[in-house]
Amino acid sequence: MRLKLLTLSLLIALAVHAGEPAWDDLPEVKPASKDWPWWRGPTRNDIAASAKDPPVKWSPTENIAWKAEVPGRGHGTPCIWGDKIFLPTADDKAQVQYLLCFDRKTGEKLWQTEVHKGGFMKMHPKNSHASSTPACDGERVFIPFMVQNGMWLTALDFSGKILWQKKLGAFVSMHGYGSSPVIYRSAVIVLADNVKGSYVTAVHRKTGEILWRTERPDYYLGNYSSPNVGTLAGREQLVIPGPNKVISYEPLTGKVLWSCDGPSESATCSVTYGGDLVYCNAGYPKRNLLCIRGDGSGDVTKTHIVWRKDGGNGDVPALLLSDGLLYQQVDEGRIVSFDAAKGDIVWENKLKGVFSSSPVLADGKIYISNEAGNMYVLKAGRAFEVLAENNMAEGCYATPVILGNRIFLRTFKSLWCVGK
């Protein structure tokens, strides 16, 4: 009997080591076309596939369906599932981090749950204590917070009740935290890059159990990118830019698939996938941009870089890929369209202001907001054309969410629903 038990234990250990999804016991998350369940939307690429005739022109008093006051401060993008909008915020004076829930149709605040109190940590003045975008699986909402010298992940139900809360590990802050979680099968994956003791970890969505944890490189200024998961070169990959390298992991186990030096030492945004290629930029100390073939293994620095652009690129805004064009919004206002396969510049121009928001493609148009709250609407394609410039009269770092014929936009003070 003892021999049988030992044999069974060995077989289980071998199965887990081989990458079998022994923990994969929850149904796949399938958001509807009307949902925006996590950072960068359902397909994780800032493409609003369900958008149909969204507004092009509006103002604080024109084409506004509703406006809701948002207490505190935060830069996280709205997370939308069904008739609910989830938004993180923080009261800096009281040192409280909250998750808010609004009614999608009316903007009414349905609940406000205190997630953490006390223990706020050092951060860059441009950052906030609520810069992550929540992720939702249709039953639970997941929000990570840097607080009390640690990285914490909390799961709440749709009524605002905390289901579980887990300290994932220690966290040493330089400029704060801004990474958003991704959902993969039964897990929610959180990146905890920081000054000392960086890691990426997968946590069971229902129980909060740690499924795997992989140590990551440290950097004395920290790293601020968000992980992105998807099918790249025919296999599922979890790709993270920075520090100093782009690293691809097997999302089921956390094992490294390949790595590539660059684009720079510290990164802020997430990568963008396109067929067999992955595009990534990083902003410190140089603003570099890389296109890497994603079918490699081990160190692919000398073999899989398709093209690169050194200097003069973006830092915070994510790259947008559509119809063979790669759009890059540079923080200081320059916007560039590249041939995605070759890296040749198709067009470039200048928009007014400084940008932290990422561009979103909706119904053949690109929506991008600067930090002053002016949102530009551009025509997507091989020629630069501004269709409209809309002033919200409030500052904005968050990326817009576009669903159907409505735009959901978080500014410094409010949550807006733009539409008739």
What this model shows, in words?
The chain is mainly beta and 420 residues long. The protein is 4% helix and 43% strand. The chain contains one helix and 34 strands. Strands 1-28-29-30-31 form a five-stranded mixed sheet, with no helix packed on it. A hairpin with a 3-residue loop joins strand 7 and strand 8. The radius of gyration is 21 Å and the shape is globular. 49% of the residues are buried.
Structure at a glance:
With 420 residues, the chain is mainly beta. The protein is built from one helix and 34 strands. The longest helix has 16 residues, at 2-17.
Topology:
Layout: H1 2-17, E1 47-48, E2 64-69, E3 79-81, E4 84-91, E5 96-103, E6 109-117, E7 135-136, E8 140-147, E9 150-157, E10 162-170, E11 182-184, E12 187-192, E13 199-204, E14 210-215, E15 228-232, E16 235-241, E17 245-249, E18 256-261, E19 272-274, E20 277-282, E21 288-293, E22 298-299, E23 305-309, E24 320-322, E25 325-329, E26 334-339, E27 345-350, E28 360-362, E29 365-369, E30 374-379, E31 386-391, E32 401-403, E33 406-410, E34 414-418
Parallel strand pairs: 1-28, 18-22
Antiparallel strand pairs: 2-34, 3-4, 4-5, 5-6, 7-8, 8-9, 9-10, 11-12, 12-13, 13-14, 15-16, 16-17, 17-18, 19-20, 20-21, 21-23, 24-25, 25-26, 26-27, 28-29, 29-30, 30-31, 32-33, 33-34
Task: List its salient traits.
420 residues; mainly beta; 5-stranded mixed sheet; 34 strands; 4% helix; globular; disordered N terminus
Distance between the termini: 71 Å
Indicate the percent of residues in helices: under 10%
Shape: globular
The secondary structure category is mainly beta
Beta-sheet strand percentage? 35-45%
Spatial strand arrangement across the major sheet: 1-28-29-30-31
Q: What value does the Rg take, in angstroms?
A: 21 Å
